[in-house]
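REQUEST FORM: STRUCTURE PREDICTION
Request ID: SP-0412
Submitted by: Lab K.M.
Chain count: 1
Length (residues): 51
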Amino acid sequence: MTLVSQDHVPDAVWEAVRPHFTDAELVDLTLLVAAINTWNRFAISFRKTPA
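STATUS: Completed
RESULT:
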């Protein structure tokens, strides 16, 4: 999901996770990945170093 601008989520990955998560859980997981990616981009932009 992090590199969807370069490629989509491969069908094999989707098929591997689909049996383990409900639709709602997949939405939550997607939102979590998006939030973490956003936090990382802010940290990189503001030159934040790990504490």
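NOTES: The first helix runs from residue 11 to 17.
Reviewed by: T.R.
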